[in-house]
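Now for a specimen:

…
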Amino acid sequence: MIRKSSIHIEKANIGEFYHNSREKKTKNSIFSTKDNYCNIKANEAMELYFSELKKRTELYRKRTGKKLHKKTITLFSAIINLNEKHTKEDLKKIVRFIEKRYNTKVIQLAIHKDEGHIDENGNKIINYHAHILFMGIDNEGISVRRKMDRKDLITLQDEIAKILNMPRGINYTQEKKKRPKRLDTYEYKRAMKLKNDEVAKLKNELQQKDEENKKLKKDLLLKNAQIRKLELTKQGLEKRIQKLKNQMKDYNKLQKENRQYKIFTKEDYQTLSQIKKLLKVSSLKDINHMLNEFENSIKEKIRKRQLELIEKYSTETGLIKKEKIIKISTVKKIIKYTTSTKKDYGKEFIDAVFKVKRLQKELKQEKEKNQILKTKIKDLEDENTKLKVERDYEEMEIKESSKNTEKIEINKTLTHISKKRIKSSKNIGDL
């Protein structure tokens, strides 16, 4: 699997100087430490850190006139993905890049090749990575954290990939994907342990299932042997004859119910009766052979009936598309899966064909009923429209009549007023 580049920067504590130099035992170290690298011991790193912190704190005070805030991050840890080919020279390139980019100083750098896990197949999976611890206050007394915005960190990932000549990790911002939670070393170890435990549990369950399946197969073989042994007894052969007889009756009954010809004739029943009579005089082995031959002839008749149904109803039942002739190989496959000595699928197949035909007939009837109902609905709608037109016409006539009545009343009123005026004018003239 190709490893991808990644740099993760977080707040550090001085205890990490010991983790990086491996001067104190760590649970993460499970492989050989001989290929690890660390530039300085923990005590030297701490002395350098406190010396630089004192200088930078003073620069901060002079620049701002204030004391350094308690929550200011004074030490950062950069954790960087590597592969098995990377060396301390590659890491020093990143050190120079970080010091220049953030105008700061790197205190300690380390390469670890002793961490990782053992996978479910017992293979070593080494987590090649590096730690760079650098000052959180730059050379001018400015907080480095203020320089690390989203844009800066995205560009940082691109630059680290180029320096290490590795494919870049996923750009979650560009691809608009949710960023997964990053696990620290201890969380990663716990997660891998849980994963390995789960894999081991599943393997154990699978092994148990395999053993159960083997036992079931063995039991099945024994039962089949017992069945074959029972079939060779007189009682077993009698049961077998009766079973064949019942099967033949069931098929004929099904055919009769669907107004079809009988598959098995009177001669077939007579043949079966003759075999039963021979039980008294012939050897059981011969009888068993006769029954096998007879059973094969029954199966052949069932197959023949299935072929007839396939040819007749294939288009309706969806076995043939667009009137294409079904291949003989396909027919044999259908028959193979619809005829079984364990379960009588052949009868089910024939019954299913007849059911489809009945359902198609019922569907056709329902469609005809629906068509009649649609016609009735249309007639009712036409009648309703006609009645609506008549009602509207009547309403118009009533309105017109009402208007005429109002006009007559108005004319009467006006005539009456006119008469009064004429009368009044005459009276005035007399005076």
